């Protein structure tokens, strides 16, 4: 069947808008029939049989792995190593037969990720993959291939595949936490309840599109944009920067907020917008002081936060986007939406080819 834009100007816009529906599909695929557990759609898995997970991917899928590292370590106390496939495959990585190796890929055909999988296959206890295309090479060569239910993604810049990868990885991390005795039944039910609300909250966030479009118009003339985040929002800062550079061709970098003073602060002046992705959490006051460091140098802060965060940030913030409240556990999934919309509307304002950005391919099947 031919995939249409369904009234949207670009596939990317359609795919951003589809996220509440595909995230609900993904949740249904992983929620156990009893409503109290996670059931993997493609077979069982025992996380007590491994002592480490190695995650390998490219591009946006690599960023999904970086978020998942926080989840697996916090929820399941499982050490996680994350690497870019093109590095992993050649650096002669040490991998034990007690490790699970997990490959994340939308297409399931990325050459470097497939080569990394083949390297690990001879050494790891199990080869897992999180893929969008079930009949792909990566899925076929895995011991267990986990679907993400995103449906066909056409836009070169990955959007709904990213959030669905995150949902599948969150479900896996919950399962691992439960099996390894770090999440009890009540906590599992509470987390599943929060996951069940996510598609609706993502839908609410789409209503911020007009506000984000106005900020995008202000960002469009910039030469450089910096994205900052802490904890699991650090990978999101990298995703925001990746999306922006891919489709608007503005130079953008994602940094850990606490690393600001070790380099990127040298770039800050009134020409450099700094996008801070920070739902309120226990480290929010540290993020506020990072923002103050930026503002003291004339930097223009775009703060993406919730209502409490906007109040706590005080004066001096250039632009604020107020997101719906969300449990910090799921914030990385929700905050992907404003990152995507900001990149999308900046690209539209600049008139670039959103769905087919120059020099990029949807799937990189050659090295
Ligand atoms: C290309 C695409 C990205 C994607 C990356 C990894 O660079 O443009 O959107 O994240 O490949 O692709 P995969 O299919 O392995 O997720």
TrEMBL record:
Its EC number is 2.6.1.16. The keyword Nucleotidyltransferase does not apply. The keyword Repeat applies. Residues 43-182, 215-357 form the SIS domain. One of its GO terms (molecular function) is glutamine-fructose-6-phosphate transaminase (isomerizing) activity. One of its GO terms (cellular component) is cytosol. It comes from the Bacteria. It catalyses: D-fructose 6-phosphate + L-glutamine = D-glucosamine 6-phosphate + L-glutamate. Keywords: Aminotransferase, Cytoplasm, Glutamine amidotransferase, Repeat, Transferase. One of its GO terms (biological process) is carbohydrate metabolic process. It is found in: Cytoplasm. Its main location: cytoplasm. The active site is at residue 362. Homodimer. This is Glutamine--fructose-6-phosphate aminotransferase [isomerizing]. The lineage of its organism: Bacteria, Pseudomonadati, Pseudomonadota, Alphaproteobacteria, Rhodobacterales.
